[in-house]
Amino acid sequence: QVQLVGSGGGLVQAGGSLRLSCAASGLTFGSYTMGWFRQAPGKERDFVAAIRWSGGTTSYADSVKGRFTISRDNAKNTVYLQMNSLSPEDTAVYYCVAGFRAPMTVLAGWGNDRGYWGQGTQVTVFS
User: d(Cα 112, Cα 122) in Å, to the nearest integer?
Assistant: First the structure.
């Protein structure tokens, strides 16, 4: 079956960096648009970034543009989220998602009833 395993979260001081990873199995990774969402305590799950299944085009939420970079390694079936200049407002559980040939604009509006989701990894930024 399909599995997405996120890792790389942790505790970091404001201004620092983290790199999240999401390793996928059980699917043809190169045919899936991959994305990251996050959910802060008491808030809804929000779109963070996506990378298209073909060509590597990317999309970002305004709140992370210029600070976060999404990338993928199809040989390793893994998507990454490099997070720089972190602030306490970035504190959340981060989830990766996979959508079969999904347009990024469509994936950005998904709830957890669509696509395949990872288990989430906690990112905590302290000031």
Answer: 17
Contact in structure between 17 and 37 (CB atoms under 8 Å):
no
Contact 125, 86 (CB under 8 A): yes
Burial class (CB in 10 A: 0-12, 13-18, 19+), 48: buried
Cα 115 to Cα 3, 11, 53, 63, 83: the distances in Å are 11, 28, 14, 24, 24
Dump pLDDT digits (tens) for 103-124: 988 898 998 889 999 999 999 9
**Quick one: pLDDT at residue 112?**
82
Query: How far is 101 from 42, CA to CA, in rounded Å?
Result: 31
Is 12 in contact with 86 (CB distance < 8 Å)?
yes
